[in-house]
Amino acid sequence: MVMVQSTIKPLISEEQIAARIAEMGRQIREDYSDTNILLVGVLKGAAVFLSDLLRAIDGAVDYDFVAISSYGNGTRTSGVVRILKDLDESPVGRDVLIVEDIVDSGLTLQFLLENMKMHRTASVKVCALLDKVARRVVDVPIDYRGFEVPDVFVVGYGMDYAGLYRNLPYIGVLEQEAGS
Ligand code: IMP
Ligand code: MG
Question: Has domain 14-150 been given CATH number 3.40.710.10?
Fold first, then answer.
């Protein structure tokens, strides 16, 4: 029987993540002045990042979550199809900051930005912890970016592979080797 052995190779440490998020939080507050910001996290991957980012932003800030279904990479050109969970509260008149764990093809973000346009928000910006820029299919604006990552599959800090590894406090690269 062939077994698939998974190992995680550390890529971004807990300390590096924390330091970068502290910088991003300060930058966001500086840019938004004293605006009441509405962070909109994309479930489930961005939940961990959002919870740390939230506490790195001083002053008035609230958060909400959306969940969307995706057909996954390559199976459909549209990529993203529908909202599984919409915002709990109206974003009308709010300054919305979309919070993503990682931007890959950009299709998820493009869909969210299109969707957000239908609401009369005061503004919409994007904050992504990771940017896998080599994989981009559609051009999407990223206003705040934590780290650029190479074209590898990352896990940890909220990001999963088959529902595993979200609880790792650091970000690592999933490497699979066939063993016996
Ligand atoms: P996109 O629509 O192709 O940009 O994909 C974005 C979503 O795919 C992210 O929000 C993640 O949920 C997931 N994703 C993309 N790359 C990775 C990865 O390397 N590890 C874990 N999840 C990923
Ligand atoms: Mg995601």
Answer: no
